[in-house]
Design goal:
261 residues; Rossmann fold; five-stranded parallel β-sheet
Length: 261
């Protein structure tokens, strides 16, 4: 396992992932090609207030950090009680164990847990959403599939932004070059939007086919099926991913394939 280099393409918890990769006996490299940037305090406040003024019927929390920021800002605005009253009278969905943990720490237990946005859509496909207002804690990028689904069901979409993503093009170009030059023994992608940004940049530099070829020659691990599907879409056909979207399961796959190799 010596000298097995692992690229970690993660925006959140990258240091935690790197530590765990190191504990497995591999050499981690954090490829922070996309970073999370909080919106200005006044913009966050306005986004939350505007959404709550419309009295949402359904809530969807997508990330631990984003959920925490919403509750924190709601408290500062003295809107936390109103937020909880609206949540208690509506339907609440939460994606991922970190966001779930924030809701529990806030004393809120009446929610439905989903593994992914795709899972949420599946759970709602037979529901009557006509004229309902859906509060979505956005996590850096638009959610076109979810938005299109909700609008097709007659619902209103309330996008609540608290942070967005910024791309470091210099680091992105260097990451793509390392992939193509065989520097890495494996690569771990934790979310689909990272895949989009990497391939968008490769396309801009006329290196898409080279990148696909390079990724086809090493273990590519996705955190879950949504990220894997995005890789499939771009032509990366050999992708390993756990059935449940959990870091620990993705790392189990990483350990197995690199130990076998």
């Amino acid at each position: 396992m010596k000298n097995k280099r692992v690229a970690i393409c993660a925006t959140r918890r990258a240091d935690d992932i790197a530590k765990k990769v190191l504990e497995l006996g591999f050499e981690p490299f954090i490829e922070d090609v996309v970073i999370m940037e909080k919106l200005p305090e006044n913009v966050m406040a306005e986004n939350i207030k505007k959404a709550l003024d419309q009295e949402p019927d359904v809530f969807y929390f997508t990330t631990g950090e984003g959920t925490q920021l919403i509750f924190q800002k709601a408290k500062e605005l003295n809107l936390d009680k109103r937020l909880k009253v609206l949540m208690e009278s509506g339907k609440v969905f939460v994606r991922g164990y970190k966001a779930r943990g924030v809701l529990l720490s806030e004393g809120f237990k009446n929610f439905i847990y989903v593994e992914s946005t795709h899972d949420l859509i599946e759970k709602l496909k037979d529901a009557n959403l006509s004229n309902l207002r859906v509060f979505i804690q956005m996590y850096g990028e638009k959610l076109p599939d979810l938005e299109a689904f909700l609008l097709s069901k007659g619902a209103s979409v309330l996008e609540v932004w608290v942070y967005k993503y910024q791309v470091n093009l210099t680091k992105m170009d260097a990451f793509i070059e390392k992939l193509m030059n065989g520097f890495y023994s494996a690569v771990l992608f934790t979310s689909a939007y990272q895949v989009d940004y990497v391939f968008k940049r490769a396309e801009e530099n006329s290196k898409r086919s080279e990148l696909i070829k390079a990724l086809g020659q090493l273990p590519v691990i996705a955190m879950g099926h949504t990220t894997a599907e995005r890789l499939f879409k771009y032509g990366v056909l050999k992708v390993l991913y756990p059935e449940k979207e959990r870091l620990i399961y993705a790392l189990d796959i990483l350990e197995r394939v690199l130990s076998d190799g």
